[in-house]
Design brief:
Shape: rod-shaped
Helix content: over 70%
Largest sheet: none
Distance between the termini: 29 Å
Length: 237
Amino acid sequence: MKHFSSYAAYPTKNTLVGRFTFAGFFYNHWQYLVAANNPAYSSIITETENLYKETYGEITQFIEALGSKEASTKHVGNVVVSFHQQVDIFYEAVVYKFHKKSVKYKECFPDGVLGYKRNRLDEYPAKIKQALDLADKYSADLGTDIKDAFTQIQSDFDAATSLLSTIHGHVKSIIPNYKAKKELIDKQILKNVCTILLQNLDNPMALTSFFDEHLINSKKKKKTDKKIKDEEGSDVP
């Protein structure tokens, strides 16, 4: 009897998968209830359907927004790669024109080439500006092509990160108050479990046929699911 308290809990409360995976889990559960064709499940079928539609009615929009975010993330990454390549060109021009031990070289590359490359994403605007300002300062010696390239990279980076920020905010807003809605789903699932068990007292293992447990208990999560979870932040239990 002392272990009964461990059963008096919401079975899906602490799942660590993203909204898309859990939506699939909850949708399949609803369909399994319908397929059972048991009049005793009619009320919980209606409640489950309403909760699913209320919470995940815009899941397609959610997935599309995530796809846009992934594309925008790749675009930002491509701009960063372009910046790294242009830094190499800048480096070769400075070394050729001023030599590696010169004061001008040390001004342009105080931390070497890696000083421009090993940065967090939020540090790149300053690094791009630094490279642009120096390329502009010595454009009479190095030509204007390097400065122009850094100018374009700065513009591309600003546009790409701005779009990424906008899409991120859109993804977060598609299912508002998700934590509260998820709590209602957890309670509904517990109610459904109790109802199913009452209908299968002679065969309690029948319960497993109403859930895709692998969707919420997999030890190795898919990258897509992890990405979705990252987007959700603390809103997902």
